[in-house]
Amino acid sequence: MTNFTFLCNELITYYDYCVNPPRYMQDSDSELIEGCRQNNRKSQEQLYKKYAGLLLGICLRYVRHRAEAEDVLMEGFMKIYRLIPTFTANGSFE
Questions:
Q1: Which pTM value belongs to this model?
Q2: How far apart are CA 44 and CA 93, in angstroms?
Q3: What is the pLDDT of residue 22?
């Protein structure tokens, strides 16, 4: 797959999300966080899907390779799930 084809596919996927957002995008952060506090796997999955793209972009700024960035992302989410009971919601989760 060429870079152009990959980029086009990513843009189409993004457009689809904007026009017809999936259920996890409609859930409020407070609902997802509460579900994660209760170790609800569905809430953890929804939280991941909601923020993985944004966080992967940030990871890619700090590491050179996508595979490395994905590893950093996974480590970050494991830390989020472990520490989410201490989240006080004094600011935006994002």
A1: 0.66
A2: 14
A3: 57
